[in-house]
């Protein structure tokens, strides 16, 4: 129903426009109201029928050829089919008008029909069909690109959430393993471990929905976690770490230190005779966890959940990589410290960064599509108005005073710059100049980010 109302509105506008155009062509002739109303009604019937038929044709062809899957076939079959449908419908409408409305015979209709009656309709249909099909072809391509970018962003966000949720069972499983061992070895120590574990797990629950936490928070948590570890191993572990980070704004992914510390204890021999030395320190823009290498001789094949989790989470947030190194005497893990702030007036978590990046991309794409629509609207108006002004110029002065050059040239220049802005093709600065300059200034920001 809404489609019919839209066709009615468009048909009324087209009919009024054609009627006004005919009045301007015959401005020297007297106006007969009854005749003009009759012609207006005829124009409306033609406009409504042609619009309805083409709309129905487009709906049907969309069922067979989609813009997403077969854009070129949709473009050419739609344009050519629209021309054929329009010409056939125009012939039927003229037959109805001449034979049924004006009461002429079939022979009279055939004898009086002229090719010129259809040439103008063919040219107009060809122009608008190719123009609008090209426009919607490009629009669908842009829409597809926007959809692909949104899917990529949403997939990354969902993947990140899955990785974060993976930490809970992983941490709990390993903690319960430690607790089980303590219950067998030292029940009193197990009770203290249980109390401390509740505090540690509270931190896990608080940080699980964050993509970044400050290094200071992680250091504080690492200290609490190592207190739990020492309840089991006592003096068999020597642990060193700074009280605070050199940069209060420095951030890492949450629970990364806990995973590295847990990994260190799990895969190394820890005894009073062979104590495990663990050291946390900052070096440049990296937070480093280093331990002396004394691997266990027999160990189950590791699943790699912890280290893989850290690597994947960093991979979704930054191009800087989480790295691990092994020497003859030590095992070293390096966590990239992230300090870049998108906003200067407030601190943002990576959740905000991802959401804002998605919003920025969407708004930029939306603004680009808006500019393209404005350009095509201006181009359509130009192609309609300028030929009309040329005709008026010819009728009034016979081109003795070619005043139509001025609006055509002025409007054309404006249209050219409108095109350059809509498609980012600056005549003097080259294509994608704006994008290149933005990237340049972004690269000139803090190199440590």
Automatic annotation (TrEMBL):
<dbReference type="InterPro" id="IPR010559">
    <property type="entry name" value="Sig_transdc_His_kin_internal"/>
</dbReference>
<feature type="transmembrane region" description="Helical">
    <location>
        <begin position="115"/>
        <end position="138"/>
    </location>
</feature>
<keyword id="KW-1133">Transmembrane helix</keyword>
<keyword id="KW-0808">Transferase</keyword>
<dbReference type="Pfam" id="PF06580">
    <property type="entry name" value="His_kinase"/>
</dbReference>
<feature type="transmembrane region" description="Helical">
    <location>
        <begin position="375"/>
        <end position="395"/>
    </location>
</feature>
<dbReference type="InterPro" id="IPR050640">
    <property type="entry name" value="Bact_2-comp_sensor_kinase"/>
</dbReference>
<protein>
    <submittedName>
        <fullName>Histidine kinase</fullName>
    </submittedName>
</protein>
<feature type="domain" description="Signal transduction histidine kinase internal region">
    <location>
        <begin position="158"/>
        <end position="236"/>
    </location>
</feature>
<keyword id="KW-0472">Membrane</keyword>
<keyword id="KW-0812">Transmembrane</keyword>
<feature type="transmembrane region" description="Helical">
    <location>
        <begin position="401"/>
        <end position="420"/>
    </location>
</feature>
<dbReference type="GO" id="GO:0016020">
    <property type="term" value="C:membrane"/>
</dbReference>
<feature type="transmembrane region" description="Helical">
    <location>
        <begin position="40"/>
        <end position="58"/>
    </location>
</feature>
<dbReference type="Pfam" id="PF13239">
    <property type="entry name" value="2TM"/>
</dbReference>
<keyword id="KW-0418">Kinase</keyword>
<feature type="domain" description="2TM">
    <location>
        <begin position="364"/>
        <end position="443"/>
    </location>
</feature>
<dbReference type="GO" id="GO:0000155">
    <property type="term" value="F:phosphorelay sensor kinase activity"/>
</dbReference>
<dbReference type="InterPro" id="IPR025698">
    <property type="entry name" value="2TM_dom"/>
</dbReference>
<feature type="transmembrane region" description="Helical">
    <location>
        <begin position="79"/>
        <end position="103"/>
    </location>
</feature>
<feature type="transmembrane region" description="Helical">
    <location>
        <begin position="7"/>
        <end position="28"/>
    </location>
</feature>
């Amino acid at each position: 129903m809404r489609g019919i109302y839209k066709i009615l509105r468009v048909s009324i506008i087209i009919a009024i426009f054609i009627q006004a155009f005919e009045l301007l062509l015959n401005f020297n002739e007297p106006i007969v109201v009854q005749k003009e109303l009759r012609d207006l009604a005829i124009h409306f019937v033609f406009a409504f029928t042609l619009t309805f038929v083409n709309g129905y044709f487009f709906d049907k062809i969309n069922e067979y050829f989609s813009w997403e899957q077969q854009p070129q076939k949709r473009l050419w079959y739609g344009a050519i089919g629209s021309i054929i449908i329009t010409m056939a419908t125009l012939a039927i409408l003229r037959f109805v008008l001449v034979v049924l409305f004006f009461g002429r015979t079939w022979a009279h209709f055939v004898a009086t029909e002229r090719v010129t009656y259809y040439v103008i309709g063919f040219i107009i249909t060809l122009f608008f069909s190719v123009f609008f099909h090209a426009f919607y072809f490009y629009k669908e391509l842009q829409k597809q690109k926007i959809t692909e970018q949104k899917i990529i962003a949403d997939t990354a966000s969902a993947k990140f959430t899955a990785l974060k949720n993976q930490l809970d069972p992983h941490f709990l499983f390993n903690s319960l393993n430690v607790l089980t061992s303590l219950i067998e070895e030292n029940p009193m120590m197990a009770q203290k471990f249980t109390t401390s574990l509740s505090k540690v797990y509270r931190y896990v629950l608080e940080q699980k929905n964050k993509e970044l936490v400050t290094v200071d928070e992680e250091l504080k948590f690492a200290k609490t976690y190592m207190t739990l570890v020492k309840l089991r191993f006592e003096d068999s572990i020597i642990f060193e770490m700074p009280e605070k980070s050199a940069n209060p704004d420095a951030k890492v992914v949450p629970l990364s230190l806990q995973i590295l510390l847990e990994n260190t204890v799990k895969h190394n021999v820890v005894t009073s005779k062979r104590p495990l030395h663990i050291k946390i320190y900052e070096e440049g823009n990296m937070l480093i966890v280093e331990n002396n290498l004394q691997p266990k001789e027999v160990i189950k094949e590791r699943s790699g959940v912890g280290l893989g989790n850290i690597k994947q989470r960093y991979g979704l947030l930054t191009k800087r990589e989480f790295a691990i190194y092994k020497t003859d005497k030590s095992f070293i893990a390096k966590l990239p410290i992230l300090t870049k702030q998108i906003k200067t007036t407030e601190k943002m978590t990576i959740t905000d960064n991802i959401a804002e990046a998605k919003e920025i991309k969407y708004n930029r794409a939306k603004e680009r599509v808006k500019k393209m629509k404005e350009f095509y609207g201006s181009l359509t108006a130009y192609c309609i108005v300028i030929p009309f002004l040329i005709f008026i110029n010819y009728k009034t002065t016979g081109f003795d005073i070619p005043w139509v050059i001025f609006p055509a040239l002025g409007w054309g220049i404006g249209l050219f710059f409108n095109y350059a802005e809509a498609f980012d093709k600056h005549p003097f600065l080259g294509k994608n100049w704006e994008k290149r300059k933005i990237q340049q200034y972004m690269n000139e920001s803090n190199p440590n980010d």
